[in-house]
Amino acid sequence: MLPRVFEYFRPKTLEEALQLLSKYKGEAKVLAGGQSLIPIMKLRLASPKYLIDINGLQNLSYQRTTDGHLALGCLVRHKELESFEAGNTGLHVLRDAASLIGDPQVRNMGTFGGSLAHADPSADWPAVALALRAEIKVKSVSGERKIKAEDFFTGPFSTSMNEDELITEISIPLVKGRAASSYQKLERKAGDFALVGAAAFLMLDEKGVCTKAGIGLTSVADKPVIAKKAEELLVGRKIDERSVEDACQTIREDINPPSDVRGSSEYRKEMAVVLAKRAILTSLRRISGG
User: Fold this and answer.
1) How many CA atoms lie within 13 A of 148 on its CB side?
2) How many Å apart are CA 220 and CA 23, to the nearest integer?
3) I want to staple 98 with a disulfide (CB 3.0 to 4.6 A). Which of 20, 82, 147, 191 is the partner?
4) Is the CA virtual torsion 199, 176, 239, 83 positive or negative?
């Protein structure tokens, strides 16, 4: 099937893109990587009258450290994060997740910002953004605002962005100390959307006591979720297999995954516990140099 007729724009500046979004508010879609938008346009699940291609805005494709944060421009491709060097940032989860997204073609074209804006409840990056307590910067002709990741996703394929707003940057806090992270994913076949996905961030003091924990889950609800009870049970405790097991068992009580042809709700609950444990223990091994 072919998409319905639309008018195409390729703005040369961010200001021009925002003006177009304002002018055609509610009738336009933004094209970044196009790995989600183009297929649903071909199926006519989305039929925008106007398509605003922002790929010419190269100043939105960057990775830089500023004011204690890692700032990622919205047009950073999955492929670029697949080779991300975590160093002492603890952000191994970026490389983990990027390497599990789609196939090489998808990773070459798809963008971090586009994935967050699309807000697929089975996507990988939203869980990572939650675990890392990322902040999402959005902009319109009226100004700029910052939205915490936990407030950004409001439901399946929906966010707290207004129709005339565009994601410009994702900001991730950088920590100093013993930290690591991991993303674990269950998929039916390589490159598939997550049947369940779990992102974890862990920070320990010199005695092995957890000082900070983040756990984001995908494909377990109609939007990505934070396993807050599990996080709370980890912080202040010495991290070992027993404490991780105790914390992750609470996840089953706090999620209500859908049942579909790919897996039952109960199976997803069980795998959410398994993958969260795996992500936390992988982070622990990385802190220990494993």
Assistant:
1) 7
2) 37
3) 82
4) positive
Provide CB contacts within 8 A for 88, sequence distance 6+. none
Contact, 138 vs 170, CB < 8 A? no
Q: What is the mean pLDDT of the chain?
A: 94
Which residues neighbour 23 within 8 Å (Cβ) at sequence distance 6 or greater?
none
List, in sequence order, every residue forming a beta bridge with 111; answer none if it has no partner: 77
- Residue 34, Cβ density class (10 Å: 0-12 exposed, 13-18 middle, ≥19 buried): middle
Q: Is 178-287 assigned to CATH 3.30.390.50? A: yes
Span 241-252, average pLDDT: 95
Overall CATH class of domain 7-53? alpha beta
- Using alpha carbons, select from 29, 39, 218 the residue that is nearest to residue 120: 218
Cα-based angle 81, 87, 93 (whole degrees, multiple of 5): 45
The CB density around residue 82, as the number of other CB atoms within 10 Å, is: 18
What local confidence, expressed as pLDDT, does residue 290 receive?
62
- Cα(267)–Cα(271) distance, integer angstroms: 6
Residue 261 tokens, joined: 């042809």
Model confidence over 96-107: pLDDT tens digits?
999 999 888 999
Residue range(s) of every CATH 3.30.390.50 domain in the chain: 178-287
CA distance 223 to 257: 10
Say if residues 179 and 93 touch (Cβ distance below 8 Å).
no
